From TrEMBL:
Keyword Transcription regulation: yes
The name this protein goes by in its record: Ada metal-binding domain-containing protein
One Pfam family matching this protein: Ada_Zn_binding
SMART domains, per database record: HTH_ARAC
Organism: Paenibacillus ehimensis
C-alpha cells in the first residue's frame, strides 16, 4: 500500500469515521487485534497498523477480533448503532410509561451513563429528548385523529399531570393542545 493511500486510511482511523466500517479492517500489530476503522479504542501508532480488505484476511494474518467494536458482527456501524437502535425501539414500545434513563439501562443491561454517551454520539440527541419527541408525535397524532379529552391523551402519552403535559406541549410545539387540535382539524 502506497504512503498516500495509507495516510488517507489512517485519517479515517483518527476521525473514527463510520462510513468505512465493513469496507476494510485495521490490524494492530502491537496487540494482535483487528478493528473497524471507527473503533473507539486507543488510536494505534501508524507503524503498528496493517489494512485488510476483509475479516477473513485479518484472521488469516493471525489477528483476533476486537471485543469493543466487534468487527465480526454484521451491521455497518457496529455495536454503538445497535445500542442506539435498541434504545429507540424500547422508547417506541414503552413511551407511555414513566421511563427513566436508569430503566432503559436496566432493560438493556448497561450503565445508564454509558448508554447516554453512546446514544448521544450516534444520534446527536439524548434518550430523554428522544422520549419527549416520541411522546409529542403521538400526542399530535391523537389530537388530530381523535376526540379524546386532552387529559386522557396526556395520560396515554406518559404524562401524570394534564397541566404539565399542556406546558410541555406548548413549549415543544408552540401552541396548546387545544389550539393544535383546532388547526389540525382545519387541514
Amino acid at each position: 500500500m502506497d504512503d498516500a493511500l495509507f495516510q488517507s486510511v489512517y485519517e479515517t482511523i483518527l476521525r473514527r469515521d463510520t462510513r468505512y466500517d465493513g469496507r476494510y479492517y485495521i490490524g494492530i500489530t502491537s496487540t494482535g487485534i483487528f478493528c473497524r476503522p471507527s473503533c473507539r479504542s486507543r488510536i494505534p501508532k501508524p507503524e503498528n497498523v496493517k489494512v485488510y480488505g476483509s475479516i477473513e484476511e485479518a484472521l488469516q494474518a493471525g489477528f483476533r477480533a476486537c471485543k469493543r467494536c466487534r468487527p465480526e458482527q454484521p451491521g455497518q456501524h457496529g455495536p454503538d448503532a445497535q445500542i442506539a437502535h435498541a434504545v429507540k425501539e424500547l422508547i417506541k414500545r414503552r413511551y407511555s410509561e414513566p421511563l427513566t434513563l436508569g430503566d432503559i439501562g436496566a432493560e438493556l443491561k448497561m450503565s445508564p451513563y454509558h448508554l447516554q454517551r453512546v446514544f448521544k454520539r450516534v444520534t446527536g440527541t439524548t434518550p430523554s429528548k428522544e422520549l419527549l419527541h416520541v411522546r409529542m408525535e403521538e400526542a399530535k397524532r391523537l389530537l388530530a385523529a381523535s376526540g379524546q379529552p386532552v387529559t386522557d391523551i396526556a395520560a396515554e402519552v406518559g404524562f401524570r399531570s394534564p397541566s404539565h403535559f399542556t406546558s410541555v406541549f406548548h413549549k415543544t410545539v408552540g401552541c396548546t393542545p387545544m389550539e393544535y387540535r383546532e388547526t389540525a382539524g382545519a387541514r
